[in-house]
Design goal:
single chain, seven-stranded mixed sheet, disordered N terminus, alpha+beta, about 750 residues, globular
């Protein structure tokens, strides 16, 4: 931000006058010439909506992006040139509580920052070169508005009888409005918001509606998602509509809010609308969001139909950057599930779930980041999130917290979760080629790994959350010891930091971390590897050890065979949690067992994705659905992207797209599809920094026909899957052919 915009002050409504209301603030100003440009820089905490002359400024919702406001705050910039009018103009703002004034949930953790407040500068430039600034200052006036309460967890209450028509337009009399009060700033440095805005990206029509009482209805949107509903009705003044939200129904067909975390938050997701009367009314909330599929509507006046309610899908509006489809409908369904779950959990922060916690847990982010980058142009989100992690480091001597950003940190990050701070910069670098993300976080990454080295006993890291939510009873990590997964992440992070050190000219550090990686690898082999049985003792242990190349080359086939034996010995079922799911399918395919990977995707009995689907899942769950766990610890979320790491398999293995980390940003691409038996065709694309990459193959009467598009400026090494023949490709379109062999190479 340029220093000259700091003429503005932070302003708001006096707390004793505001109550729980979302205050309205307005400022009149007159133009004195022909306007050639006008730019609004604004930060309304926790959320804001702005109007000029009664017209909404942009289509953003839930602005600005969530941060730790004592460390940094996001300023949103809008070009509003065309919104100016000759004569009197009005800039109006409504302030919501958002994450800044979140004082209803997790109160014991003291997550509250302060009362809602506004900072803004409207910079106007006239044809004759003069400039004028309309700033947030004591000249503004304020009043209570129709949003009588709002909370990101508990919902919003809107009383349409309290609307003040024309309040944000010229000619409105604000004589009875009061002066704003000048407030202290939140304390954080002001930064321009550069990530894509949160928007309403899709509208859902109910798939069913059924009456459940006088004036009460159960609405099924058909898809678990995050956002809110829009309603359209006609009722007398004072008619009150209550909307309750949940991810599932109970056995009696009534709303079951347990998976939304009521046991932890103490509140339900609930909105209320109070009619003003006198005609048709439309409403949707502004300053809350919900995770839901089902809506219970109560108090509805008159007939109710699908035209009266619609679902509004709300998330950070990334550009779609990848696509996958194939001949197997189950895989397409699971791909769509991964995407719905990811979209449901990103509103400027990579969340764990959209109902209960809505937190940026580091471990979850680590296993989501790569499939996010394949599917969306999400680099800016991950760079913003890494900066959020940086803001937590002050609390623990330079080490990250388990959650970022904000005050709910859940303490210093446990080792395996902390590794996200090393791995995510690397993922972003490999996909984009941008060294800056490595340079910016080098000091923090090295401090973290130095801490792990100090904590490790004989190079083994004992602590960690482990392979979170693997199947089996009420445990969160049953099959793989956390010491194994944490130590494997320690090894992988040391290897990554050695590479980063070489890139950044930190040669001594690079050599040190390469040595450390060797020591950790040897320690893992001594402690966890059963050489006689060629196993690390679990599916996740074997999959991660193979993926990270911990296994001696001469033993890789035996470890892969042990992995297969374990899966088949369990009647083709997984024992993996979020870490194993990230690597299992790629490892199986990479060692010639793609057919088994496909069979796991088609497994329908517990634990499996098919079992989730049979039980009504439209997004991925927080675990495999063990009722005994839910009874003992509280029902888990039905919308958790951490289970979606398998989605990488569709791109990297079935389509065979693999970035070359030595020539990042897809300057050079490895293309190595691994077709499993029974899959007739695959088509995938990804928008690289150079342009669109396409890999599409089909089994055409026993011939493998592979169509490839390589972006201009890139090079690719394509390996035909059955003959093993390699082709060097420059930018252009190609068709390669190979003899298709069911279940192996020629």
């Amino acid at each position: 931000m340029k220093s000259k915009v700091y003429e503005a002050q932070w302003i708001g409504m006096a707390a004793e006058r505001r109550g729980d209301n979302a205050p309205l603030l307005r400022r009149r100003f007159a133009l004195c010439g022909e306007v050639v440009s006008a730019e609004l820089n604004i930060c309304g905490l926790g959320y804001y909506e702005a109007w000029i002359n009664g017209v909404r400024v942009a289509d953003h919702v839930l602005d600005p992006a969530q941060t730790d406001y004592t460390e940094r705050v996001m300023v949103v910039r809008h070009d509003v040139t065309g919104m100016m009018a000759a004569g009197e103009n009005v800039l109006g703002v409504m302030l919501g509580d958002g994450w800044y004034n979140q004082n209803k949930v997790w109160v014991e953790a003291c997550l509250w920052y302060g009362e809602p407040r506004l900072w803004c500068v409207l910079a106007i430039r006239y044809r004759d070169g003069r400039e004028e600034r309309v700033c947030s200052d004591e000249a503004w006036r304020c009043s209570a508005g129709p949003v009588v309460s709002n909370n990101v967890y508990a919902g919003e209450v809107y009383d349409a009888r309290r609307e003040q028509p024309g309040w944000n337009m010229a000619g409105f009399c604000d004589d009875e409005w009061e002066r704003v009060v000048v407030m202290e700033g939140p304390g954080g440095r002001m930064e321009l918001q550069t990530i894509p805005p949160i928007r309403v990206t899709q509208t859902l029509t109910p798939v069913s509606i059924r009456g459940v009482g006088e004036g009460s209805y159960m609405v099924d949107m058909g898809q678990n998602h995050a956002g809110w509903v829009k309603i359209r009705l006609q009722g007398s003044a004072g008619t009150e509509i209550t909307l309750r939200f949940a991810e599932r129904l109970d056995d009696a067909g009534m709303l079951d809010t347990s998976s939304t975390g009521v046991f932890a938050t103490g509140v339900e997701q609930r909105d209320r609308y109070i009619c003003r009367g006198g005609g048709v009314e439309e409403w949707e909330p502004r300053f809350t969001y919900h995770g839901f599929r089902y809506v219970e509507v109560s108090g509805w006046p008159g007939a109710f139909s699908a035209e009266a309610i619609s679902g509004r899908v709300v998330h950070t509006d990334f550009r779609v950057a990848g696509g996958f489809e194939c001949s197997d409908e189950r895989l397409d369904v699971l791909h769509r599930m991964a995407l719905w779950t990811h979209r449901s959990n990103v509103r400027s922060v990579p969340e764990d779930c959209p109902a209960r916690e809505r937190c940026g847990w580091l471990g979850d982010a680590n296993v989501v980041c790569e499939y996010s980058l394949w599917n969306y142009d999400s680099r800016s989100l991950w760079e913003k999130y890494l900066d959020d992690i940086e803001t937590t480091r002050r609390l623990h001597g330079g080490l990250p917290c388990n959650i970022a950003p904000g005050k709910r940190t859940c303490g210093m990050a446990r080792p395996d979760w902390a590794m996200a701070f090393v791995m995510i910069p690397w993922y972003v670098y490999v996909h984009s080629g941008a060294r800056g993300v490595l340079e910016r976080h080098w000091e923090g990454m090295t401090r973290l790994i130095e801490h792990l080295r100090a904590e490790a006993a004989e190079w083994i890291v004992e602590d960690g959350y482990g392979d979170w939510c693997d199947p089996g009873g009420d445990g969160l990590c049953t099959h793989t010891p956390p010491a194994l997964t944490s130590s494997l992440w320690f090894y992988q992070s040391a290897r990554v930091l050695s590479k980063v050190g070489q890139l950044l000219g930190e040669t001594a550090a690079a050599e040190k971390y390469e040595h450390w990686a060797g020591q950790v690898k040897a320690a893992v082999m001594r402690r966890f590897y059963d050489a006689a049985r060629a196993t690390f003792g679990s599916q996740t242990g074997n999959a991660m050890a193979l993926a990270f190349r911990v296994v001696p080359e001469e033993d890789e086939a035996r470890v892969a065979a042990a992995l297969v034996e374990d899966i088949l010995g369990r009647d083709t079922h997984v024992t993996t949690g979020i870490m194993g799911l990230r690597y299992l399918f790629e490892v199986l395919s990479g060692h010639g067992h793609g057919d088994l990977a496909l069979a796991l995707m088609h497994q329908d009995s517990y634990p499996s994705f098919g079992n989730m689907l049979a039980r009504g899942a439209t997004t991925l769950w927080e675990g495999w659905g063990e009722p005994e766990h839910d009874l003992a610890h509280g029902a888990r979320s039905l919308n958790h992207p951490m289970m979606g790491g398998y989605d990488n398999w569709f791109y990297t293995t079935l389509a065979g797209m693999q970035p070359d980390e030595t020539q990042p940003g897809f300057a050079h691409i490895y293309l190595r599809p691994m077709p499993p038996r029974g899959l007739a065709w695959v088509r995938a694309w990804h928008d690289t920094p150079y342009g669109r990459l396409v890999s599409a193959w089909r089994n055409e009467g026993g011939e493998f026909v592979w169509e490839i598009e390589v972006p201009a400026g890139c090079r690719a090494t394509a390996t035909l899957p059955f003959s093993g023949r390699q082709c060097r490709l420059e930018g252009g379109t190609y068709q390669l052919r190979d003899t298709y062999v069911q279940g192996g190479r020629v």
